[in-house]
Amino acid sequence: MGIFDKLLGRTTKEEETHMEKLKIGIILGSTRQGRVSPQVGEWVKGIADKRGDADYEIVDIADYKLPFLGETDGSEPGIAAWNEKLASLDGFVFIVQEYNHSITGALKNALDFAREAWNNKAAGIVSYGSTGGARAAEHLRGILGELMVADVRTHPTLSLFTDFENGSVFKPQDLHLDNVNLMLDQVLAWSGALKTLR
Ligand SMILES: Cc1cc2nc3c(=O)[nH]c(=O)nc-3n(C[C@H](O)[C@H](O)[C@H](O)COP(=O)(O)O)c2cc1C
């Protein structure tokens, strides 16, 4: 690019890549009927969209109808679609619920169904459960290390007792708002940095 292009404010392809908004998927970790994860995911997306600093979208594992890994010949279209969706994203926010002190089987299966599409990206975790889903979130961090996903420190934890009515209607306390924004700050910083590695 010449001096005139620069003076005219023209950008190179490389600069355009850096200027593009990051794409962040908000992944719903539960798939059971009657699940509350869509309420939590929409709440996070609402906070994120107000920032206007990235393209945020809900990614619902249930939409992909993934079989159990290895039980089929792998030709189900949802498997390829799942990988394509992950590949199109720069970072993730996992909506994590605690099942028997860990993550759901559905989320573990979905994590196992991709490899390169996860690598060198960043993630935040928003969890819920009787103790804020903390045990499930810590299990997820171990898995993310193996998948080369950099999980950020700030971790909003929602209580089934004080952030939900009857454990089913999501009514988050105001105190979580700052934590969600801080978590998103960290996810965007690391997603942008790791994009340069890919
Ligand atoms: C199979 C199962 C196991 C659960 N185990 C735990 C648990 O160990 N700790 C906990 O805090 N909550 C546990 N719960 C309660 C869930 O965290 C709660 O039902 C939550 O709403 C589940 O998320 P979902 O509605 O998005 O599926 C469990 C729920 C299910 C269905």
Fold and architecture overview:
The chain is α/β, with parallel strands linked by helices and 198 residues long. The protein has a single domain (23-195), classed as Rossmann fold, CATH 3.40.50.360. The protein is built from seven helices and eight strands, in the order ααβαβαβαβαββββα. Strands 1, 2, 3, 4, 5 and 6 form a six-stranded parallel sheet that branches. A hairpin with a 3-residue loop joins strand 7 (164-165) and strand 8 (169-170). The longest helix has 20 residues, at 176-195. The radius of gyration is 18 Å and the shape is globular. It starts with a helix and ends with a helix. The model has no long low-confidence stretch (mean pLDDT 94).
Fill in the keyword field for this structure:
alpha/beta, single chain, 6-stranded parallel β-sheet, Flavoprotein-like_sf, NAD(P)H-dependent FMN reductase, 7 helices, binds flavin mononucleotide, two-stranded antiparallel ribbon, FMN_Rdtase-like_dom, 19% strand, 198 residues, Rossmann fold
Name of the CATH architecture: 3-Layer(aba) Sandwich
CATH superfamily: Flavodoxin domain
Helix- and strand-based class?
A: alpha/beta
Runs with pLDDT <50, length 5+? Answer: none
Terminal Cα separation, in Å? 24 Å
Residues in β-strands, percent: 15-25%
Give the helices and strands as they follow along the chain.
HHEHEHEHEHEEEEH
Largest sheet: 6 strands, parallel
Number of strands: 8
| CATH class category name | Alpha Beta
Mean pLDDT: 94
Which secondary structure elements does this structure contain, and how are they paired or packed?
Layout: H1 3-7, H2 13-19, E1 23-28, H3 37-51, E2 55-60, H4 77-87, E3 91-97, H5 105-112, E4 121-129, H6 134-146, E5 149-151, E6 157-159, E7 164-165, E8 169-170, H7 176-195
Parallel strand pairs: 1-2, 1-3, 3-4, 4-5, 4-6
Antiparallel strand pairs: 7-8
The structure holds flavin mononucleotide.
